[in-house]
Design brief:
This is Endonuclease NucS. Helices cover 23% and strands 42% of the residues. The chain has 240 residues and is an alpha+beta fold. The strands form 2 sheets. Strands 1, 2, 3, 4, 5, 6, 7 and 8 form an 8-stranded antiparallel sheet that branches. The chain has a 5-stranded mixed sheet with strand order 9-10-11-12-13, with helices on both faces. The protein is elongated, with a radius of gyration of 21 Å.
């Protein structure tokens, strides 16, 4: 498990570490004095106090104080986390669209910010590998999209071997990159390099790129759009 910690960070250092943590799909914890405001099905506020805030890559948000095992405020998986600096203070917003809910946390003092690259449990690692994900696609190509036909695995390009090379329903070449975990912009950049190399080397003007992963960060989604690439949500193993 990789851990990065900053004690008594300034707001710029804290914001940078939190952003990097969320983009990388890591768990992030923030300890400091803050206020908390919830706006959704009801409205509530917590006055300034010292709290532990945990942001998880699946969108979960937990706000704890010193006592008890239950969070004093929280958001379930499926939301997004955004960091902004306003008047020299760090603001964290966690938002869900269905239903429309927001938790706004304003830090007036930061004690510690940590990012954790947590590993999945051993059984999940063994049965949920990228090879498992690739095999799922080879056995059921329509998981990528209707009409997709895989032609080759580990096809070489100058940018490296691609996981799966195939064609879509229109005969357009498709590069499929498989990731077994939530990914950030690095995975998008990797796929974009494969597509660019394939367009140069496969003597075709158009090559599509599809990223396969259980989930992606907001920044990764924006970069996919910029590069005109596609994401398909898929786990390495089928949940029964």
């Amino acid at each position: 498990m990789g851990v990065t910690t900053r004690s008594r960070p300034d707001v710029h250092t804290a914001a940078e570490l939190i952003d990097e943590s969320l983009d990388a799909g890591h768990v992030c914890s923030i300890v400091g004095r803050c206020t908390v405001a919830y706006d959704g099905r009801t409205q509530s506020t917590l006055p300034a106090g010292e709290r532990l805030v945990v942001c998880k890559p699946d969108g979960t948000l937990l706000v704890h104080h010193a006592a008890g095992h239950k969070p004093v405020n929280w958001q379930p998986p499926g939301g997004t986390h955004d960091i902004t600096l306003i008047d020299g203070e760090l603001h964290l917003q966690s938002r869900r669209d269905a239903p429309d809910e927001r938790v706004e946390i304003r830090f007036t003092d930061l004690r510690q910010v940590s990012a954790y690259a947590l590993e999945e449990d051993h059984d999940r690692d063994v049965t949920g590998s990228e090879d498992d994900l690739r095999q799922r696609i080879l056995e059921q190509p329509t998981l990528v999209e209707e009409g997709f036909q895989p032609r080759m695995t580990e096809r070489e390009t100058s940018a490296g071997p691609v996981d799966i090379y195939g064609v879509d329903a229109n005969g357009t070449p498709v590069i499929v990159e498989c990731k077994r975990r939530r990914v950030g912009p690095d995975a998008v950049g990797q796929l974009a390099r494969y597509v660019a190399a394939a367009e140069r080397e496969y003597t075709t003007k158009t090559v599509r790129g599809i990223l396969i992963a259980p989930s992606i960060t907001d920044r990764a989604e924006r970069e996919l759009t910029q590069h005109e690439l596609k994401w398909v949500a898929l786990d390495p193993i089928h949940s029964v």
